[in-house]
Every structure is written in C-alpha cells, then in structure tokens.
Amino acid sequence: MSMIIAESLTKQFSRESRPAVDAVSFTVEPGELIVLLGPSGCGKTTLLKMINRLYEPTGGTLLIDGVDARSLPVTQLRRRIGYAIQQTGLFPHLRVEQNIAVVPQLLGWARPRIEARTNELLDLVGLPCDFRGRYPHQLSGGQQQRVGLARALAADPAIMLMDEPFGALDAITRSRLQDELLGIQRKLHKTILFVTHDIEEALRLADRIIVMNDGRIAQFDTPLAILTCPSNRFVEQLTGANDVLRRLSLLTVAAALGHGRRSAAAAGAVADLPPLRPQDDLRFALTQLLGAGESSLPVIDDGREVGQLTLADLRAILPQTIAAVGASQDGCNVAGAAPQT
Ligand SMILES: Nc1ncnc2c1ncn2[C@@H]1O[C@H](COP(=O)(O)OP(=O)(O)OP(=O)(O)O)[C@@H](O)[C@H]1O
Ligand SMILES: [Mg+2]
Description:
By secondary structure, the chain is α/β, with parallel strands linked by helices. Helix content is about 40%, strand content about 20%. It contains 14 helices and 12 strands. It has helices at about 45-50, 75-80, 95-105, 110-125, 140-155, 170-190, 200-205, 225-230, 235-240, 245-250, 255, 280-290, 310-315, 320-325, and strands at about 5-10, 20-30, 35, 60-65, 65-70, 80-85, 160-165, 190-195, 210-215, 215-220, 295-300, 305-310. It has a 6-stranded mixed β-sheet with strand order 6-7-8-3-9-10, sandwiched between helices. Strands 2-1-4-5 form a 4-stranded antiparallel β-sheet, covered by helices on one side. A two-stranded antiparallel sheet has the order 11-12. Bound molecules: adenosine-5'-triphosphate (ATP) and magnesium ion. Adenosine-5'-triphosphate (ATP) binds near residues 20, 44, 45 and 46.
C-alpha cells in the first residue's frame, strides 16, 4: 500500500495551450480505490501518466510514500506501479503467459517463481489455466482485459493505475469485471487510481471520487457526498442530481450504511424479512422497504448481518424522494405500503 500526495501538480504541453492538468492537489490514502471521473479531455489520462512519469509534470510535486517522485529512478518508480489501459496494451505476438511475465522477467525473477505467479494471477482474474498458451487475438475483449489486469498485478505493485480498463466492454462483462476488481481489491488492498467517464462505474467502484473538469478538481469526495452534496453545477449535471430516483439507483446500500464497505456486525438475530445486500442499489432497497412495510431491513453480507438500512437513512440522503413516493406511488415501481415512520 502506498500513499500518493499531489501538490499543485501541473502539466502544460505547450506554452500556447492551457494546462491539461492545472495545479491539482489531493491526497490518496494507502489502500484506497480512487476514481478519476470527468468528461473527455479534462485531463484524467494526463494526471495518471504523471504518476508513473510517462509524462513529466511541468509544475508542482508528487510524493509517493513521502518521497518526491522526481528523485526516484523511473524504472524503480514503475516497478511499484502497475498500469492497465483501455486497449489492454497486450503484446499481440506474445502468448498470455509471456504477456503476464513481462515485468517479472525484467526484474529477473527465476522461472519457477514466474510460473507460480502466472498460475496464481490467472486464477485471481478468473481465467482457466489452459489459456496461458493463447495469443491475445484468440481471446474475447473481456478475457484480454483480464490478462491486462493480471499483467499489471504481476510484480505485486503497491499502486495500480487503471485508465478506462473496462471501457470497450459490453455492460454485462463490464459489471462482472467491476465485481472482480472489487473482490481483488478486498484481498490485495492496492492503492488504485481508476479512470472512467462513466458515473455508474465510478459510484460502484470508488472509495472516493475525484471529479475533474478542464484540468481542475471540481470535487473530491465519497460517492455518497458527490451525489447528495454536489459542490457545483458541473458536478450536479454530471451526476444527474436532480433526478432523485436515478440517484437512488446509483447509490449502494453499503454507501448509505455509512463509512466503509463493511461496518461492524450489528447484534441481533436476522428476522424473516427480505434481506438487503451491501451491493444492492438504494432504489431496490426502497422498493424492498416499502414492499415489506418495514421501516428498516437487515443488511446481510457473507451470511452475517452487517447493519440495518432504515427509511430514515434514505430520507436523510434524499429527502425529496421519500416525500414524493409517500405522496404518490407512481414515481417508482413500488408495490405495497407507504413508508412507516
Ligand atoms: N501528448 C499530448 N500533447 C499535447 N496535448 C495533449 C497530449 N496529451 C493530451 N493532451 C491534451 O490534454 C488535454 C487532456 O487530455 P487527456 O488525455 O488527459 O484527457 P482525458 O480526460 O484522459 O480524456 P479522455 O476521456 O478522452 O481519455 C486534452 O486537451 C488533450 O488534447
Ligand atoms: Mg484518457
């Protein structure tokens, strides 16, 4: 795990142009999954590439675990940073196993260690072992992305930079890979910077989101805060904040339960109520709450109760929504009772 601190980090490609990244400052805590979100051309890729020094900043500083990135030899820096990109960047003439082994080989790992690591990674990203001999063109887009992810993880870097890694995939494959990334992150606790311009992907994955606009940070906050307290019109429009039911569908039960994906287990037996899962969206949760005629429902993860989601939680997040649903049921697909208080 590594900590990343940017102070007034700037990249100006030419004297005539405006900075692509304009004096941005932020701190990423060790083990956080940060999503960089913003429209095309706002500077996401440029920011990412300054972190592994594919681009040298023209201003400001970047500290990695307290050390100025400029003071580190580039090779040493990149060893600690895995990089996965949208077009996967796989070498077409190398087999899957050779692609995964590129960095370990550069680092001079012994053959058996590379073998073992390759098997471990194929398993981690959900590819069968007999794929190791295939060439990239013999894989589907989603499978190529998995190999790209395995390759980025190969040398066990503390930091992962991921630039729209799932951008080219269909919705189902994409959502499966998002789940797997979250699963992997729960095991490995990397410090991850993940670029996307898809708000739903951002809300689903992020511990915190950096919203960028024109090279600047418009807001750096939790998914919940981005949706419920957008700092300006730009963020509001980006998240469609005036459409309350859409906002509910974008937030997870875990986000509404409070900090962290897993709160401490609550005491008490699980009644025979329809349980919610942390990854369920809040629109579904509202439907379940209203359908059951309950003011709270248990949230179950891995067979354990991790908290209770209450109507009050939802009301606190989106006051208008509950009021609207209470007044008339036709704003959403809610069957059953009106909310109890
Ligand atoms: N190598 C370069 N030389 C000159 N200008 C560049 C270079 N790379 C990026 N830019 C400019 O910097 C700005 C930010 O580009 P960047 O690639 O960081 O955007 P982005 O947010 O990643 O966009 P997208 O979502 O389309 O990938 C753009 O105006 C772009 O034209
Ligand atoms: Mg980009």
